[in-house]
Amino acid sequence: MACHAATPSLLLIGCGQIARLHLDHLRQNRAFHVTGLVDPDPLRMAQLVTQTSGNARHYQNLTEALRANPFDAALICTPTDQHFNQLIELWHAGLPVLCEKPLVDTRERLQEILRLASHSPPVMIAYQRRQSAVFQTARELLSQGAIGRLQSLSLINTERWAQTIGGTWRNDPHQNPGGFLGDAGSHKIDMLAFLTGLRPVRVLARCHNADWNVPVTTQAWIELENGVRATVLLTGNAHHYFEEFRLHGSAGDLIVRPGELLLARDNQVAPVPVGKPDSSPTAAFAEMLAGRSPNPAPPKVALAVRDLTDAILSSSDRECDVIVEQG
Predict the structure, then answer these.
(1) Closest Cα to residue 135, out of 244, 287, 270?
(2) Residue range 100-151, pLDDT digits in tens
(3) How many CB atoms within 10 Å of residue 233?
(4) pTM of the predicted model, to two decimals?
(5) Superfamily assignment of 9-128 in CATH?
(6) Domain 132-278+299-323 fold
């Protein structure tokens, strides 16, 4: 990233719903100054301008933007199948990138990104739960043995997701083959690895489209390393939001919910104080580029998410349990 006394400039690629969320964070942390917007839809760009300082230039495509203006970094908020080519183009321009999840759409493309990443500008994936103080504290407690030896865990996530995808790329099996699991569920699959540090070994799963073009619900039984068992229940056509991780150990349980962490022992459940504030992907990206912290979500973490997601979809398609590909 170029060195400037002023706030570094950011090129925002894709002006949809997730871009608005990042701009909300940027208004709070002011880590970057958005000086360019890329989207083929002028209406989407116009709607987003009100969330910037007002002087961001507009571009129909990424090539046009990179030719017209220098930027210090880029944020990719486009459909997943566009990420690979955009990452390559941004790397050729020498720009570090914060990219929305999933990083790319196929394992082959991900392996190419991992091959190139060692000699390219840094890439961080926008897995925002890695900036959550609750999840960071839960991870620390697990590693310290606060609940003894981890034995099993369960994840339940319900969202009103399917009701919002009509006419969008999320309902296109070519652009979003994993459906709810591959899109919003990507964050939760990432948290399985982030919290436990364990790799999946075997999966038995069923997915259901529920009258949509992509999978909307997922029920999965997962065998992790060290004999740890996990169950994952994802319901993308619910009518309310709910998310909960329950981690069961030989000496206690941890219950992790957005903004809440509980510790259970001897049939007593008590809140765990979380002594640090949440961050955001844009703030963590800025800290990484300034050299004040390591990359919290480098491209290599996408491989664990990709392989488990593919194994779940394969198990469902084949109606049998499958071995999870490793590395």
Answers:
(1) 244
(2) 999 999 999 999 999 999 899 999 999 999 999 999 999 999 999 999 999 9
(3) 14
(4) 0.92
(5) NAD(P)-binding Rossmann-like Domain (3.40.50.720)
(6) Dihydrodipicolinate Reductase; domain 2 (3.30.360)
